[in-house]
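Progress note, project year one: complex with S-adenosylmethionine.
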Amino acid sequence: MASKTEENTHESCEKESSELWSEPLSQRKENELRLLTFEEAEKLQNDRDLVSEFKQLKLEREAQKNWDLFYKRNSTNFFKDRHWTTREFEELKACRETEQQRLIILEAGCGVGNCLFPLLEEDPSLFVYACDFSPRAVDFVKQNPSYNAETCKAFQCDLTKDDLTGNIPANSVDVSTLIFVLSAVHPDKMHLVLQNIHKVLKPGACVLFRDYGLYDHAMLRFKPGSKLGENFYVRQDGTRSFFFTKDYLQCLFKNTGFEEMSNEYVLRETVNKKEDLCVPRVFIQSKFCKPNKQC
Ligand SMILES: C[S@@+](CC[C@H](N)C(=O)[O-])C[C@H]1O[C@@H](n2cnc3c(N)ncnc32)[C@H](O)[C@@H]1O
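Model obtained:
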């Protein structure tokens, strides 16, 4: 279980994960950015000093190690199962050409499988490719009692450098999820992840995306000395987090050959019952597709 200190520093999929937090008070989708209070705006404005280049290069070199250590400390206990994806998949299943068609899914950056196992439970006829660059996370997936090689293939892969076609036939995947993964990748390399996924998607297939949005509570909690660049921060455990705007994400996907289907902020308030605190969460939830015909 994550220790209190880790909870304070590793905000990750942000207490969508921790039992400390109750159900959201509200969840609404918005077109506009969250408005900051005066104090919040001032805090972000004053936080100008960036982590040294030397340390930034080290963090990049050790990104995989830092995530692997994260799973060593937390094993499978940190992130909560993500059931919103099953709602999305209902929509996708309805688009199947025939009832018998087996949907092929890629969970890119699967962690310990919090998205893939709920999906497989609901529909054992799916086939899921699941990859992550933490060898420990991949082992946890394979050790899960619900793991079955007939319905799932888990493998280790750095999405910024290892060609997915080494494990997945090109143009074969019906839908890929990318959930709280791109924020962990250096902004200069995000396009490489999308290009990699693009290759294995069927024409017309989508990426379902969910990640941190600009001005999420987690962004405002970073202490001075954590800033790596614009909207990019490092946690105490060395894992990094980027906070997306809709425009940034749209550009990134469009420049790698995707078409936008939807792209929205999800604004929530979550309550920490123990501390009697209500905090604003900002996520971004989007769907981008590989066009049917390449121009
Ligand atoms: C916040 S976790 C989310 C895990 C999972 N998608 C979920 O929703 O529970 C981010 C994951 O991205 C993985 N990751 C980060 N950079 C990666 C890369 N370059 N290639 C593959 N996986 C990466 C990490 O190992 C970690 O498991």
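The longest helix spans residues 63-74.
The domain at 4-289 is CATH 3.40.50.150 (Rossmann fold).
No further modelling is planned for this target in the current period.
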